[in-house]
Amino acid sequence: MTAGTTVRLTVGQAVVRFLSAQRSERDGTEQRFFAGCSGIFGHGNVAGIGQALLEAELLEAKRPEAERRQAERRGAGFGGSGLRYYQARNEQAMVHTAAGFARMRNRLAAWACTSSIGPGATNMVTGAALATINRLPVLLLPGDVFATRPASPVLQELEYPGALDVSVNDAFRPVSVFFDRIWRPEQLASALLAATRVLTDPAQTGAVTLALPQDVQAEAWDWPVELFAERVWHIPRPVPETVALIRAVQLIRAASRPLIVAGGGVIYSEACDELRFLAEAAGIPVAETQAGKGSLPYDHPLALGAIGSTGSAAANQMARQADVVIGIGTRYSDFTTASRTAFGHPKVRFVNINVAAPDAVKLAGCPVVADAKVALRDLERALGSWSTSDAYRAEARQLAAAWDDAVGRSYALGHQPLPAQSEVIGAVNEAAEPTDVVVSAAGSMPGDLHKLWRARDPKGYHVEYGYSCMGYEIAGGLGAKLADPDREVFVLVGDGSYLMMAAELVTAVQEHIKIIVVLVDNHGFASIGALSETVGAQRFGTSYRYRDPASGRLDGDVLPVDLAANAQSLGVRVLRAATMTEFADALAEARRWTGGPVLVYIETDPTVPAPDSQAWWDVPVAEVSELDSTRRARAEYETAKTAQRPYLAPPESL
């Protein structure tokens, strides 16, 4: 009911109505910003956000069909007055779904997540960290303890002796780019506006948390009606400062062996064409981070593929001799820089184009704080006719071709009795159309995908490697499919990650959402098993085995866990493959399937490595040990450490 210029709603109802009215716009294209809401209800949110979502859903059902269709055409999704609710099975997983959705939409749309108090809320903390590290907008609405404190401690309340205004939700503070607790209804309007401002800021975005005490959620207030008016948030494209661009051009013109490192910012900015134009005009080869893979098609003459610890030999060889590195939209993680050993030229300098100033100044680089699309366009114009030599271009092509030959060989190893993981990747790559999406996150799969996946579309490669979170894969794949239902989504997940978080398969079954899950079972933690060998730890604790009564160690027979049967019990269509021929047939059948999620199961040999990236990753080795394997690993580690560099020289000293 309205009274003058106000409308009386509960805090929960006001939140839902506000979120429903928010839109984003970039380059003249508008879309609904909050596209959906996942949630698990408990006593901390069922009477607030839960009741509000129900009311919105029922009101939407009463709207005339023509009105609903008009809302859909405008991108308003489910109900101009409501937010479509999706039932989640795990609070951490639903945040991963939100992150996968935002990444697929290039951060121009987001998802909300509501939980109860206590464990329901803290389950979302890991998802919040993943979203913030990957710079992905997600809105978290955890329930909180009573603001009025009528009967403390309430169920699931943490009693902190140092302060009465602390709850478990304070754990969200370090993993959120914005945090607020709404103690009173009067505080909500400013919090909602501030939260959406941060979510739509490409330089600051990440997880945003609005903690909602359970009594406040149900409290009514007279709200100004203008709070719920449709509001369009412009996503800016900051332009480079003229002086910064001039400095960058001077550095690049002085280079003889420049190299571009394309990060996720290229894709989020939709700057792939501008990247290609610059690379072709100036003859600068392009290497890609995990988030930037797909910035150029794998077969482009100047595409070197992945860089760093999980990179291609081609990109890493060019990186060792690069005198100027042009980082575009990259955070320069340790995997990208091979723990600061990748760039070996004694006078290497960095030009960093990034919308976020903290990233632009990394490695003592020449900062160009700007949107990637705008900056690349300006940089190409400013460089004019300048170009690298024909010989340098030819060298890049030759190295890239040699690496692609190595990839092809790894796809067709014919390893027996179980196939290698590289063969599985190759078969999925062959089965996928150029615009299909591969999703992965943790274990050995992301490193092998980074090296071996032949990306052909900017949105075709979706590997979460900022937080490398086991359990992201299925939930993140669900988010990617929700964001772009017309693309086929292949989720590549190992048995370790599957065991941690597979329950969102039930959500996919419930919503009739098709994702193709490729479950690669190597009976353990393959990635850490291989890593443990390099540090002299002999694959300790990385195989799923019975404890041997005689030795007392976990080195008995393989555990009889049937993960395919588990998936089938959740309502998923399951296809089993014992050979690569059967696997290829199963993938073809999975593509034809239209009845919801489908899982293709195959066992692999975890001891067969992908082609060597000729790069290093800094994982410390025990300095003293009784084990020969550890002592040998320590000696190798100390040798490798000598190649690390601080990259502190100012760019002006070139």
Report on this structure.
- This protein is α/β, with parallel strands linked by helices and 654 residues long.
- 37% of the residues lie in helices and 18% in strands.
- It has 24 helices and 24 strands.
- The chain has a six-stranded parallel β-sheet with strand order 6-5-7-8-10-9, sandwiched between helices. The chain has a six-stranded parallel β-sheet with strand order 15-14-13-16-17-18, with helices on both faces. A six-stranded parallel β-sheet has the order 20-19-21-22-24-23, with helices on both faces.
- Helix 4 packs across helix 18, helix 15 packs across helix 16 and helix 16 crosses helix 17.
- About 1% of the residues have low confidence.
What key attributes describe this structure?
alpha/beta, six-stranded parallel β-sheet, 24 strands, 654 residues, single chain, 24 helices
From the N-terminal CA to the C-terminal CA, the straight-line distance is: 68 Å
Number of helices: 24
By helix and strand content, what is the structural category?
alpha/beta
Number of extended strands: 24
